Structure formats: structure tokens, C-alpha cells
Amino acid sequence: MALVGTFGVVLLVLTTLIHYEVLRMLAVGLPTLNMAARAKLIVVIFAAFFAHVAEIFLYAVAFYVLVLYFDAGPLGQASSSSLTLCMYFLGETYTSIGYGDIVPKGELRLLAGMEGLNGLLLIGWSASYIYIAMERFWSDDG
């Protein structure tokens, strides 16, 4: 349990840093871009999307390592755990979709819960940043 909790805290820190740095680079870099203000919104959307994909990928790698090397519990069918299965499951967990077709067992449930909360917070952070960017750049083009 302590190992999975440690993974969770490390992932929380890493994903928050990734998100912070992406949004900070947007805040610093967008005003210097020589493009239409509305096009800058597209840059914001894609940057936020790719930050979320990178964060989901980190969780997937951690899950895969915990399943494969630390026997923290199976993800779905014990014989079918793969990195793509982890990406799928953690993508739906991060976004709080939760179809329920894959269920973690054992200590992995702790990390899945932590990721769900982390994803909710980071998606909310992106939404508020996108709203601020829309407010700022939408009216710049008239």
C-alpha cells in the first residue's frame, strides 16, 4: 500500500508540474506569437489537450510498472494487462468517464482513485485557463 501511495504522490507532483509548465509557457509565449488572436485559442486548446495526454501516459506507465513488476494487483483480466489497456483505463479514469468495463483490483484501486481526483482538478484548471484565454483573445480580433 505504501508503494502505491508513493507512486500516487509522485504522479500528483509530476502531473501538476507538467500542467503548470504548459500553462506558464502559454501565458508567456502567446502574447509574442504573430497570429490572429482567435488562432491563439486553438493553440491553447491543443496545448492543454497534449498536456492531459502526457499526464495520462505517466499514470499508464506507472500502472503498468506496478502490475508487471510489483504485483500491486491485476487490471481487468490478470493475463491481459498491457500498456494500451492501462492507457485506456487511465484515460477513462482521468476524465471521470468510468465505463466500468475494466476494474482494477488490489492496491491499484488506491492509485485509480487518486488519478480520478487529480484528473478532475487538472481538467478544471485547463477549463479555467481556456476561459480566461477566450476572454482575453476572443475580443482582440473584434
Protein described:
Helices cover 73% and strands 0% of the residues. It has 142 residues and is mostly helical. It has a single domain, classed as Helix Hairpins, CATH 1.10.287.70. Helix 1 packs parallel to helix 4 (108-137). The chain starts with a helix and ends in a 5-residue tail after the last helix. The mean pLDDT is 92. It holds the Pfam family Ion_trans_2. Residues 57-135 form the Potassium channel domain.
Proper CATH architecture: Orthogonal Bundle
Q: CA-to-CA gap between the ends?
A: 55 Å
Mean pLDDT equals: 92
**pLDDT below 50 for ≥5 consecutive residues: which ranges?**
none
> What kind of sheet is the major sheet?
none
Order of helices and strands: HHHH
Radius of gyration: 18 Å
Which structural class fits the helix and strand makeup? mainly alpha
Domain Potassium channel: 57-135
Keywords: Membrane, Transmembrane, Transmembrane helix
Pfam family, one: Ion_trans_2
Protein name: Ion channel
